[in-house]
Amino acid sequence: GTVREPLQRTRTLTLASQLSSEVKKGWLKKTGGNNSAWKDRWFVLAEGKLSYFKDDRTSKPQGIIDLGQVSEVKDGGESKKLFCFEIVSPERRYNCAADSAASSNEWIASIRRVLDSLSTVKTEELRRQTASFQKKIERQGRSVEQEAREAGPSEGITHLSTKEEDHATAPTKNVQEKTQAEELQKKEEDTTKLELDKLDERRPTEDKEREDLKNEREQQMKLQEDNERLLEEKKKEEKERKQENEKNRIEEEEKLREKKIQEEREKEQKQKEEEERVEREKEAKERKENEERKKQDEAEQLQEKRASEEEEEKKRKSKVEQEQRRSEEMEKNERKKKEEEEEQKQKEEAEKRRRNAEEEAERKRREEEDEREKKEQEERRRIM
Questions:
Q1: Which residue has the higher pLDDT, 248 or 150?
Q2: What gap in Å lies between CA 136 and CA 182, rounded to an integer?
Q3: With contact defined as beta carbons under 8 Å apart, do 163 and 111 qualify?
Q4: Overall average pLDDT of the 37-57 stretch
Q5: Residue 189 above 70 pLDDT?
Q6: In sequence order, which residues have a C-beta less than 8 Å from that of residue 147 and are 6 or more positions away?
């Protein structure tokens, strides 16, 4: 007994030291007491308590769960939320959820280790108190026996005769104290045995729960691995599909670009040919006008020459002939005037035809430019 007691006390102090240090902290989702909505809370497991805060920067906790009052931690609980576990106490059931199966299992294991440590500390403390009380009772019993031996029979009779009331009540009081001490010891032993029995009954259940939790954790991890693998394959397929679509899009854009370049080249070629054709027509028209102007000049020169000859011939004729010549001159002037008017008219018609041709060429050029600009706008809209 003298060797086990320091060892038990050392073990108790070690467990108490472990409970006083911080065990685990992190984010969990939690439902309120009267509110079923899930909210993110920062949890800290330390000193045998599970405290939760609004965030990891707040020093004042929103609530504290005394794990000394917690009876069990159940994986899943009554909630259907994924990665959920339930903390059961006499006052309330706390529903918490992690972001993964591994995190949920870590929290459950950490809380259960603290519950085991608290249970061990309670048991060790109860055993220590029981042992101390047993020693106290033994000391009281030895003291009573020693007083009875020292008093002896004669001294007891004399004492009874001289002080009857004190001598009659003292042994009864000692016996009552011893009886009470024995009853208290028995009660403490029964309580200790009951606690130990509960602990022994709880351990197989906890072992089974741990085994079930381990199997469920393995299944969840396997399911999570399968989901991650399927998700990875889906991401890979999606990536390949996007790459293929991007490749097709680039090829299509390249084809459209080449087609657009070819069309622009054809348009430029057509425009160039049209400009050359207009230029040729303009040159031909100018040549024709020059030829006509030259012919007209020659005709005028010829007419002037003839008129001059006729004038000289008329001067040599007589006065009678002068009248006739005057008459002929008048006719000639009239004819010349008509010819000039006709010539002027021809010039105006030629000028008019030239302007109409130029206007027609300009109109065609503008229509072609408008058509080309319209096609370019349609091509830009189609590309966009």
A1: 248
A2: 11
A3: no
A4: 93
A5: yes
A6: 174
